[in-house]
Amino acid sequence: MTKEEFKTFWTLTYPDTIPISYLFKKDYSERWFRIHSLPDSKRYAESENEWKILLERQNQIITDIFGENEKILLVTGEYNWDENATFNADEEAVFKPYDFILLDNIDLFDFKSEDYNKGDFYKPAFAETIWNSNQHDRLLKEIANDNLRAFFISINKSIIVAPYDGGIDFVFKNIQTKDFYKKQYENWLSERVDGL
After folding, report:
1. Is the distance from CB of 92 to CB of 127 less than 8 angstroms?
2. Do residues 144 and 162 touch, judged by C-beta distance below 8 A?
3. Under a CB-based contact definition with an 8 Å cutoff, are residues 4 and 101 in contact?
4. How far is 80 from 77, CA to CA, in rounded Å?
5. For residues 136 and 151, what is the distance between their CA atoms, to the nearest angstrom?
6. Nearest alpha carbon to residue 171 among 15, 52, 2, 21
7. CB of 109 within 8 A of CB of 118?
8. CA nearest neighbour of 7 among 99, 125, 87
9. Cα dist from 178 to 34, 39, 122, 145, 195, whole Å
10. Would you call 186 helix, strand, or coil by DSSP?
11. Is 160 helix (H, G, I), strand (E, B) or coil?
12. What is the pLDDT along the chain (196 residues), one digit of tens a residue?
């Protein structure tokens, strides 16, 4: 996939947002839900057993939704206050297996002037890869430890899978698919009314 093809795909599939995962729950709330990675909504793993539970949960639900050997995109990026700075995936060793393609800078002030200042930019990048269970565990652990941000997209199924430090956010193609998986994994949902 080229940079231009990604831009076309994103514009057609997710026109109401930009590729920054914390925005998805608000911009696609009707197609969004969240699971927690640990029992009792514990945020961070503190033992080998908790890491085992976290990775088992995350791999189980992502594999259930994507399937094995699914072609996916890995999307990441970084905030930068210098428009001319470049995204450097090599700074994160966990990104070494992925071949990133840089996307155009996003002017955050133009996107949401009430939240950002002039000169605030986001530098996104994406890589094509394959989803197989446990293949991306190192990346999932880094995200779970809040060391970096990244999310996955199945182009074929129009599903976003956005792990974070505490769980995973999902944005599905439609409400029916969301409701199906939400019911399947109801034991992993938050007890909060807002689903967070």
Report:
1. no
2. no
3. no
4. 10
5. 11
6. 21
7. yes
8. 125
9. 10, 22, 29, 26, 13
10. helix
11. strand
12. 999 999 999 999 999 999 999 999 999 999 999 999 999 889 999 999 999 999 999 999 999 999 999 999 999 998 876 656 556 665 678 898 999 999 999 988 888 888 888 888 999 999 999 999 999 999 999 999 999 999 999 999 999 999 999 999 999 999 999 999 999 999 999 876 665 7
The Cα–Cα gap between 175 and 23 comes to: 18
Which residue is listed with tokens 């446990």?
134
Residues whose CB falls within 8 Å of the CB of residue 145, separated by 6 or more in sequence, listed in order: 44, 165
Q: Which residues contact 50 (CB under 8 A, 6 or more apart)?
A: 38, 42
Q: Count H helices, E strands: the chain?
A: 6, 8
Q: Coil, helix or strand for 171?
A: strand
User: Concatenated DSSP letters for 114-132?
Assistant: TT--TT-EEEEEEEEEEE-
Give domain limits for the chain.
Answer: 3-188
